[in-house]
């Protein structure tokens, strides 16, 4: 993840093996997950300087033992957290460079040698943007026009597996009863305050059913506090210490936040209507609107249809 991205809290989530397991089991191809022995997960995450892109990027790297046709070997899971607002069409190039840098790191750290060979890597891109992911998933597909047959074998190949959060429906996420699927549900519902509360209720139920409830509760609570902070939520996060224990307090805060946002939206709309009908808003009218109750806003929204002046609208 590029260093200029906001702190999504996902870096911490995927520092725990159970969340890596939930990601692979719940969202990667079943035939791959079934081959993995998740009890052998080992964290190799680190920060690497990439000369090509001149950036320090954060990634999540784990290794896991995989048994295939009677042979057990260690495979590296290279998880790139791609949380930009727009799709990066250079992703195949970036990822090829990142993987090359990671291989270089393994050689320099003497974790392998050229004679021993390089271990296999499963590159995963986790994306949470609102726009559908449209970048190519193999660098070979960026080579255009397609090279003639005698050159095809000399072209680079590196395919990553894409997990696009926004493409999963609520029903699909509901079939995956894991804390990570609950996190994805909250991400999807971030612009829908009612849906956000429902997603929070769902993840609380998942946590309560988890055998490691206290541990998962602490992890998810820290993530949710970061998430609400990024959303600009007018919620008292200092008092949110446990999603399970403080769920009622959080529900009240979210409901209050939703009401305030709704009222602010109604105020903005009414200001536009007033300006269209009467011109610029005088300071006294602006103050009246800023301190109006929800009932007053409703009354003025109806009265503006028939009012012939600001004085008449506000009943000075």
Question: How does this structure look, described?
Answer:
By secondary structure, the protein is of the alpha/beta class. It has two domains: 10-167, no CATH class; 251-314. The chain is 46% helix and 15% strand. The chain contains 13 helices and seven strands. It has helices at 10-13, 17-27, 30-33, 91-108, 149-152, 170-174, 179-188, 193-208, 213-231, 247-278, 283-290, 294-303, 310-314; strands at residues 36-43, 47-50, 55-58, 60-68, 71-82, 121-127, 161-164. A five-stranded mixed β-sheet has the order 1-4-5-6-7, with helices on one face. It has a two-stranded antiparallel sheet with strand order 2-3. α8 runs antiparallel to α10 and α10 runs parallel beside α12. The longest helix has 32 residues, at 247-278.
Concise account of the structure shown:
This protein has 316 residues and is of the alpha/beta class. The chain is 46% helix and 15% strand.
Secondary structure layout plus pairing:
Layout: H1 10-13, H2 17-27, H3 30-33, E1 36-43, E2 47-50, E3 55-58, E4 60-68, E5 71-82, H4 91-108, E6 121-127, H5 149-152, E7 161-164, H6 170-174, H7 179-188, H8 193-208, H9 213-231, H10 247-278, H11 283-290, H12 294-303, H13 310-314
Parallel strand pairs: 5-6, 6-7
Antiparallel strand pairs: 1-4, 2-3, 4-5
Helix pairs in contact: 7-8, 8-10, 10-12
Structural class computed from helices and strand pairing: alpha/beta
- Rounded mean pLDDT score: 85
Number of H/I helices: 13
Unreliable residue runs: 1-6
Lateral arrangement of strands in the main beta sheet? 1-4-5-6-7
Strand content: 15-25%
Helix content: 40-55%
Give the end-to-end Cα distance, rounded to a whole number of Å.
57 Å
**How many domains make up the coordinates?**
2
Q: State the assembly state of the protein chains.
A: single chain
* Largest sheet, strands/sense/barrel: 5 strands, mixed
Q: Please give the number of β-strands.
A: 7
Shape: elongated
- The ordered string of helix (H) and strand (E) elements is HHHEEEEEHEHEHHHHHHHH
What is the CA-atom radius of gyration, in angstroms?
26 Å
